[in-house]
Amino acid sequence: MPYRFAQLRYAHAAALIVALASSTASAQLLFGTQALRESNPWAWSENAGFLTFRRAAGFCNNVILRPGLYMSGSAWSENTGWISFGNGPINNATYSNIVESTPGGPVLNYGVNVVFDDVQTASFRLSGWAWGENIGWINFDAGTATSPPNPARYDFNAKRLRGYAWSENVGWFNFDDLAVRVEYYCRTDFDQNGSIDTLDIFEFLNAWFSQSSSADFACTGVNVQAIFLFLQSWFAGC
To answer: How far is 60 from 73, CA to CA, in rounded Å?
Structure first.
């Protein structure tokens, strides 16, 4: 690409960022959307074997975690098949896990919520139900009844899942193992270096201008909406 064209392109992008700053900075997202760290996508069950939260390369293809809101997407086990954490709640906030009326008819609004639990440890309790066609329901509240209690949860500081979930048909799913674990990172930390800074903006813009699927921030394509959502998340922090 000619050097002058590259300068103009990024100058226009910088101007867009400044123009959007006032509108996006007001968004109070205390904890940003978490993306799966694809090198550590595993949970374990004694009876079902390994469960991977990675369906394919790319943020939108894996199980997404939104602290304070919900999880969405499906995990895969060679022994039990697909397990759905929900497709996004009907009201776009949390899953009610009951049948709700919609214009298209009654719908079971099921899934796993990510409930803020402890301000000191930045811990989020996983609550609700996941579903597998071959094994039925998985209860993410069941770990509270163990002795000692070890509920399924998201450890925001360690960026990993912890605790246990229960299936009547295959038993416990373990998220608490030291080596076999499910890890996440802040989606806005685009270069995954552990901090959110201006480098993330330029890395995102590089991906967006090259039409890389990694810039599909809204899971609707590499479009203007992806830029708006990335900037909203970046200014709000994580």
So the answer is: 8
Are residues 90 and 173 both part of a single domain? yes
* Of 183, 189, 188, 196, nearest in space to 226 by CA: 188
Is residue 136 domain-shared with residue 209, that is, in the same domain? no
Claim to verify: residue 96 and residue 212 sit in the same structural domain: no
pLDDT digits (tens, 9 = 90+) for 163-186: 999 999 999 999 999 999 999 999
User: Could you tell me the pLDDT band of residue 26, with boundaries at 50, 70 and 90?
Assistant: very low
Give the predicted TM-score (pTM) of the model: 0.83
DSSP SS3 for 201 = helix
d(CA 10, CA 21): 16
- The C-alpha torsion from 176 through 182 and 185 to 186, rounded to 10°, is -80
State the residue range of the domain holding 39: 34-186
Q: Are residues 78 and 7 in the same domain?
A: no
Q: Nearest 5°: CA angle at 199, between 198 and 203?
A: 120
Average pLDDT over the chain, rounded to whole?
87
For residues 130 and 86, give the distance between their C-alpha atoms in angstroms, rounded to a whole number. Answer: 7
Residues in the chain: 238
Residues 228 and 139 in one domain: no
In the chain, the number of structural domains is 2
| 62 and 121 part of one domain | yes
Rg for the chain (alpha carbons), in Å? 19
Give yes or no for a contact between 194 and 186, defined as CB atoms under 8 angstroms apart. Answer: no
Q: How far apart are CA 24 and CA 232, in angstroms?
A: 5
